[in-house]
Amino acid sequence: MKRSQLTKTAFLIILVSVLSACKKLDLVPTNNFTDANYWTSAAKANSVLNTAYSQLLNSSLFFYNEGLSDNAYNGRGDNEGAASLAAGTYDPSLGRLKSEWGFHYTGIKTSNIFLENVDRVGGMDENLKNRMKAEARVLRAWHYFYLTTWFGDVPLFSKDPTVEETKTVSRTPKDQVVDFILKELDESAATLPVNTAYPAADRGRLTKGAAIALKARVLLYQNRWADVVTECEKLMNSNANGTYSLFPSYEGLFLPQNEYNSEVIYDIGYVTVDREYQTFYDMAPLSVGGRLNALAPTQELVDSYLTLNGRKINDAGSGYDENDPYNNRDPRLTNTVVYHQYNWKLPNGSTKVIYTKPGTDPDSNAPDEYRSGSIASPTGYYTRKYYDPQSRTNFQAALNLIMIRYADVLLMYAEAKTELNQMDASVWDRTIKPLRQRAGFTAPEAINFNASANQRDVVRNERRTELAMEGLRIFDIRRWRIAENVLNGWAHGAKFGPANVDNGYIRANERRFDAGRNYLWPIPQDERALNPNLGQNPGW
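^ thats the sequence. predicted structure below, dont judge the formating
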């Protein structure tokens, strides 16, 4: 799947448009593909489905969505609108809004065209056809999930609409769209095979477990806690819906040699040369080949990592030393964020020390890893997670990007149990404890259940540090309704700033979040110009 998914993608995107445009033609040209002569084999149908897979998400959105949150800052340009959205300086004309809307409706269109036409293929194995239909329905549901999360009410099309329909349709209430998503996921899960049933050539296809895990995430975002528990237990209590477990190494989970490991429920597949991304070129330290820094982790993210005894850095008895801030910390910090005097592992097995504090690098010719207003990191931090040691020139990488993994299932389960006031030692031992043990915690006070702790804070922070720089934080702070608390004021960097301002921590970016309107993005200006029936979200 990782390779076949990529064949003739550009051609097929054009083809999808052609198929839609030719629907009312009476004549069928024999020298062009149309909806009347294209659907002649399972291979051609699979090519359209593979196009739908390629349209689910891209590397730019995957990474820069983190810059919308308090975990990172898009300090160079406005990649995917991250700087504008995080700072609250946008309006309905922002390009990201239009592109997000169009991106997902393009994916929905491809799935709809596939579903409307695959039955034309004569002699196709029915089991294969039904499985492929289920895959397309999950992809379509995922797009609608993104749309409702960002925009709330959105037009719902279960079939490819006409041009006239797109110009007059009204938005469907979010609750109805969510009901549609959940129904699609239920029915698809009943048809899809478990992960272990696919041959190696089909690795990367959607599975029964992926549909269930995505349903759990959709329910999580609706605060339907009891239903979240039910879906997570389908994956935690037996192998009937797929075989999943935590990969033994947190660092190894994100290395190319361990792709498709036991923790991955669904990921975006990439292939060297055939399909790569270069996003890390603008995320890596300059001294190891980065071009500039366009996405920098914040001090707020760094501060969220516990000390090895399981305490927050500002808790009494944590052992935190502000003069040696990266020592005695949750090991996931080192696997995620590059900080001053970080030992960067090079592909040849050696290491290079990264000096981010100005004036400390013994190599006077080395580029500054932090300098205000330069191409270096605006926070004094870089990203390590998702660095591909096998990447080619200028960080051209083919490392798969994980969209949902078993650790997230455990965290969803822990959160739901907490919100139901059912978090106890037995739930802890199935969820947070194995995550911390895998991370490298050994102190009993860090890995054992503490009934007197604020369980909501503990679980939410665990989610932040486990999933940092994976593009999920923005959705969490929005559904928890804490965005106005964490996205108002300054995003900070390391303690390299003036001592008399914020205790010396860099002021990287000032942000604003208006709780009265920013929890929903505005309907894009250009879309409303084409179709006034779309209306607008409150406050815009």
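The two ends are 43 Å apart (CA to CA).
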